[in-house]
Amino acid sequence: MGCCSSTNGDSRAARVARWRSTGIVALRDFKLKVLPGEIFEVLASNLIERLPNNLGNLRSLKVLTLDGNRLRNLPDELGALSRLEQLSITNNILICLPNTVGHLHNLLILNVSSNKLKSLPESIGGCTSLEEFQANDNLIEELPLSICNLIHLKSLFLNKNNMHQLPQNLLRGCKALQNLSLHDNPIAMEQFQQMDGFLEFEARRKKKFDKQIDSNVMMSSTALDEGLDL
Questions:
Q1: Residue 225 maps to a domain
Q2: Which of 26, 51, 61, 120 is spaced 20 to 30 Å from 79 by Cα?
Q3: Are residue 87 and residue 117 in the same domain, yes or no?
Q4: Range of the domain at 6
C-alpha cells in the first residue's frame, strides 16, 4: 500500500513507540509513498512552542493532535489543511485562533480545551461541517454570532469560562444541537430557557436520551442534567 504495512511486520503501536524514542528519523527505514496518519500522534505531549509555516502543505491530513504542548499561536497556514476532520489542541497556552480556521470546511471535531482563549474568531462559522466543539477551561467571555451558522453542530462544551450570555439565535441557528454544557459560567438557567429555540433544543435532547434508553445505552449520572449550574 506504500504506507507502513511494512515487511518488518511492525504493529501500529510499535511504530509510534519507536518514533517517540528515536525521533521521526526512524521513518527513513521505510519506503513511504504516503505519510502514515499515526505519525501525528507523536506531536502530542511535547514542548512544541510553534508550528512551521509549511504546515499547510499537508493537504491530505485528516487528523492533527497537538495536545499538551506550549503553543501560544497557530500559523495562518492551518487553514490550508482542507481535508482536516479532527483537530485537538488541548492543554496548551493558546491566546487566540487564526482567522483561517474558518477555511476548514471539512472539520468535524474541534477541541481547544484548557488554553487561554478569551474569544473565538468570527470566522469559526465557516467550519460548516463541524459536529462537536469543545472549548472547556478557557477565558471565553462571549461567542461570535457566526457560531449560529453551524447547522450540523451536535455538541458544544464550554464549561469553565467567563460567559454571561449566549448569542440569542444559537439554539435556533444550530438546529442539530443536542448537547450544550455551560457548567462554571456566570449564566443563569432562566436566561438560557428564554432563548429563541429553547423548546426545540429540549425536544432534540429528550429524543436523543429516549433513544439511548430504548437501546439500553449506558449513560453517566450527568447525562440528563441541564448543562448549567443552578
A1: no
A2: 26
A3: yes
A4: 1-38
